[in-house]
Amino acid sequence: MSNNLTIALDIMGGDYGPRSSLPAAVEAVNLIDHLTLILCGNERQIRCELKKLDALTHPRILIEHCSEVVNNDDLPSSALRNKKDSSMRISLDLVKSGRAQACVTAGNTGALLAMAHYVLKMLPGVKRPALISTVPTQTPKPVYLLDLGANVTCDSEVLFQFAVMGAVVAEQAQNIDSAKVSLLNMGAEEIKGHESIKEAAKLLQCSEHINYIGYSEGNDIFSGKADVIVCDGFTGNVALKTCEGIAKLIVHKLTKALNKSLFNKFLALLLFPVLKKLYKRVNPDQYNGASLVGLRGIVVKSHGNASKKAFLAAIEEAVREVERQLPEKIRYKFEEIINKNA
Amino acid sequence: MSNNLTIALDIMGGDYGPRSSLPAAVEAVNLIDHLTLILCGNERQIRCELKKLDALTHPRILIEHCSEVVNNDDLPSSALRNKKDSSMRISLDLVKSGRAQACVTAGNTGALLAMAHYVLKMLPGVKRPALISTVPTQTPKPVYLLDLGANVTCDSEVLFQFAVMGAVVAEQAQNIDSAKVSLLNMGAEEIKGHESIKEAAKLLQCSEHINYIGYSEGNDIFSGKADVIVCDGFTGNVALKTCEGIAKLIVHKLTKALNKSLFNKFLALLLFPVLKKLYKRVNPDQYNGASLVGLRGIVVKSHGNASKKAFLAAIEEAVREVERQLPEKIRYKFEEIINKNA
């Protein structure tokens, strides 16, 4: 039933480079039998690692040699100008040329944004790309949060467009008709917050294309009242990283508390599987990766210190987005809105 | 050794009104023997409740009748104009007139900001007041976070001033010499974030009055690397409420996981005390309250749904701020900076 699909991987990106990306790649082709992967990076290093994994001759693993690597401290502008043969850039070029239908990287986010924007270009009518990811809620369904850091500030029109893109992503992923969309603000009252948010609220209230349910505050993110929560990239980044920090803090405090007596240590041992699962759930960034939406191609960004499991999850996300034809769905939605308004 | 001190309480504010504020007041005078409280609110209601608590004739409990209450949905401008005999306004008036040395309220934050600013006025040289509170870290010391919602946007000078005020608060509270101050940003790199943050970083780097340690990201808040973290009120509000939301989510998920089997239920029972303590620790807003700094008087804001314990904690915080002469310390610091720069 499923068509063959090809995904380009930036094998060199992230804190662990090939050590986490390559085992994830091998597991992905073993799990998904219609998936071909193009591994972008240092050929010698990739071959050496693939040999260890006994996957050197896998028919659905191809290697694209790249002589450069984008480092975590490379400035976006400099990476864009100078690293044209980097594993990150080549992964994007493969999507642009159509050889791959999506790409996955755990590399430098700033450089990725600059390169992806330059190489793939925006979908017609879309002003800015956004980073989107899910955050767990008290319901079985997660909530989609965007933007997570692609844009420091956003005007009301950009926030409106993020609402449209977020709704498409949530509706496709969760197979729902009309995603509930909310704007992140500092209070539920209409008078609070930045002017851009208040203006975006007016645009969303007037739009027949969006099921807008009003403002959310920071604590509402996890309540499940919305399917999509929209904010500027600065706010989204702080909110997501605050989640990461507090999850770490809770594990730290709990570990300390559970180490206080022999009885508590015994408890901790029994509790370990529950806590491990919980930590992963409340630490979304680390485990889900984020997608860059609004571009003419699919780009999934795994966390910089992604483990093999996290990188695999990012590959699987890319596969799902290809199957859902996400950029096309966003393009249709924008055409619909533009035509209606024309 | 300690001098008598008098604090005005807005008894009517918050979701529970007298039900949580009055028992807290009675406990406070019983705990702190040099403390006198002026209870501002509906005299009949207060007398009735005090009678139930067997504290109607307590020599250090005074009642100031107020005919109005600021509601949670009152607009700040309207509360300021129309509620001059409200329990919130009278509490502030008592500080202004010198009859009380501080006031505590769990009422409408927006109205409180407007009224406190109008009644008490800013300290010389201070441009804007800020809401400040502590957040737990992985070290035994908490970190002070400001602004938590008094100002939606802040220019670089305001952020610089918040750094100065935050440092004074942390140094006084933790008895340290030179508090480590950080700016909350979306990345550790110098090129990231709002212009106001980058400008504030330059001001702080150049200042001999502040021990500035660079940017923090959302996840760094809880690491303990800084004593004070500065941001605009929108960002601080989202970060603090995100903490509140994720703490609730974790309790929810853990409760669910621990309900899955009889064995897990047994575990939950054993774990309950550890978890309860942890929840309180990672849910700072709910338990600590926040202080309004930069004004010519001490104002402590308890959480809207403050329990008796939380309201008591807010009274104790007000007592400590009076003893530390916090507004005077901030005034000295600003004079020092202004004189040096003159």
Automatic annotation (TrEMBL), chains A, B:
Catalytic activity: a fatty acyl-[ACP] + phosphate = an acyl phosphate + holo-[ACP]
Signal sequence range: none
Record EC number: 2.3.1.274
Listed Gene3D superfamilies: Isopropylmalate Dehydrogenase
GO CC term (a single one): cytoplasm
Entries under InterPro entries matching the protein: FA_synthesis, Phospholipid_synth_PlsX-like
Main location as per UniProt: cytoplasm
Enzyme class: transferase
Molecular function via GO: phosphate:acyl-[acyl carrier protein] acyltransferase activity
One protein family per Pfam: FA_synthesis
Keyword vocabulary terms for this entry: Acyltransferase, Cytoplasm, Lipid biosynthesis, Lipid metabolism, Phospholipid biosynthesis, Phospholipid metabolism, Transferase
Family: Belongs to the PlsX family.
Matching NCBIfam families: plsX
Reported function: Catalyzes the reversible formation of acyl-phosphate (acyl-PO(4)) from acyl-[acyl-carrier-protein] (acyl-ACP). This enzyme utilizes acyl-ACP as fatty acyl donor, but not acyl-CoA.
Name the UniProt record assigns to this protein: Phosphate acyltransferase
Organism: Pseudoalteromonas denitrificans DSM 6059
